[in-house]
Amino acid sequence: MANDLKFYPLRDDPLYAVFPEGHQLASKPSVTLPQLFQYPLIIETPGCDNDIQHLMLKCPVKPNISYSFRDDTLIMAFVRSGLGVTISQELVMQAFGCPGVVSRPLEPACCRTLGLAFSKTASSVVSQTLLKYLQNKHTIKKKHGRP
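Below the sequence we write its predicted structure tokens.
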């Protein structure tokens, strides 16, 4: 992130291993990257999702990347068809519903942090009001046990 920006975290979005229904990994309660990387991997085009790229760089086992796309719907369709496995975010899985695929938490747990970045030097009333609104909304949801 640029040095002139201040980042305000709002929510953690866990990463999951995703594979087709009936896959060998579906019987496991969680999945490690080395386990997942035993199968052809379908990822977002490099530059579209840097969190997953950084995660792959940390793993001593290198994945066999079979496809890369910019579209989450296409990635899930390829996974559903049995053409590979992927890593996806909880919010993506919720947004698309993803029938025909199974997800398991990564072990160790990994997440991306969603938030807002504002210039350290320019602080408008509108940006501060938006930030406070989103921070309060997130706190209220957290208190009630909802993501």
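Strands lie at 5-20, 41-44, 65-69, 86-89, 101-105, 111-119.
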